[in-house]
Design goal:
The chain is built from 13 helices and 11 strands. The chain is an alpha/beta fold.
């Protein structure tokens, strides 16, 4: 008997090869409605490309895109107001630890040594040149216990710094530039395009904490209510197939893709042109989730016993 995973893989292949009319016919007389949430970030460019280039419609899907401020707030809406949401592995693990039926349906972006999106940056006037000097210091973070923060905690611990000795202050990524310049914090957990601007201004690159978790390591992904995902493998397969086509479009048409990025983010043209696009990948396995489970356990952020294979749609 074929497994659900083999069924989905088969559907992915079928969805990727069906013509427009065939895909819609397979979905019924009208496209299947899917409600999706994401935040404003270059990480979610494949979603916007698939929407604007009608790749979802070609797969028989009518995708409604909603923008939220924080992806962790969408978990309670899955299976109700939302069908699929952007996520990090931390969101999926925390939901499972809290007893919620949430699964990762596919990957979105990877952090790699060849394409680093995150850095721990120290102020140029702080005198800090290594992670080991952060004991007793203040660090700006986008979210306490978020994916970027957990990676920093792991880097601190493995760098010989007790994370409890460090003071963390939550702030938005764009605000970190001014906070570091004003010396209100000693270092920040920053991402592109702000990383490049800070380094250009002379601030100190302390490395990429994400790579302490793995290389490559899953940075963002897509999640859904487990019951909904298992009941709708065809819709999930078509969604992933459209994202894969969007990823190929971005690689082949970067100028046009950046125009779509500008439309959705409303960032200035010079900023759009300077952004180093992430490494996009829809691959998501239990191994990817397991790396974050171990990172959370090592940093004291997780005590529940979890099986990573149960957190990825099979």
């Amino acid at each position: 008997m074929p497994t659900r995973r083999s069924t989905i893989l088969g559907l992915l292949g079928m969805a990727a090869t069906l013509p427009v009319s065939g895909a819609i016919a397979q979905a019924g007389t009208a496209p299947v409605k899917i409600r999706v949430a994401s935040v404003i970030s270059s990480a979610w460019l494949p979603l916007w490309v698939a929407k604007d280039k009608s790749l979802f419609l070609e797969k028989g899907l009518d995708v409604e895109v909603m923008t939220v401020q924080n992806l962790s707030t969408t978990i309670g809406a899955l299976g109700r107001q939302l069908d699929i949401s952007g996520a990090t592995a931390i969101d999926i693990v925390k939901a499972a630890a809290g007893g919620l039926d949430v699964v990762g349906v596919c990957g979105n972006t990877l952090e790699t040594a060849a394409n680093r999106q995150m850095r721990l940056i120290a102020g140029k006037q702080s005198g800090i040149t290594s992670i080991g000097q952060l004991t007793g210091k203040t660090i700006g973070t986008p979210s306490i216990n978020g994916v970027v923060h957990v990676a920093t905690l792991l880097a601190l611990k493995r760098g010989g710094v007790d994370p409890k000795s460090v003071r963390f202050i939550e702030m938005m990524f764009p605000n970190m530039v001014d906070q570091l310049k004003a010396q209100r914090v000693d270092a920040v957990e920053e991402v592109e395009p702000f990383v490049s601007a800070l380094i250009k201004a002379g601030h100190v690159d302390l490395g990429d904490p994400m790579l302490r978790v793995g290389d490559p390591v899953t940075l963002t992904s897509w999640m859904a209510n487990g019951t909904w995902a298992r009941a709708n493998p065809d819709a999930v397969a078509r969604y992933v197939a459209a994202l894969d086509e969007a990823r190929a479009y971005i690689a082949a048409h970067e100028v046009e893709a950046r125009e779509i990025l500008a439309k959705w983010t409303r960032l200035p043209k010079d900023v759009i042109e300077s952004i180093v696009l992430p490494t996009y990948s829809t691959t998501l396995t239990a191994t990817h989730i397991s790396a974050w489970i171990e990172a959370m356990r090592e940093t004291g952020q997780l005590s529940a016993e979890l099986n990573a294979s149960n957190l990825v749609l099979k």
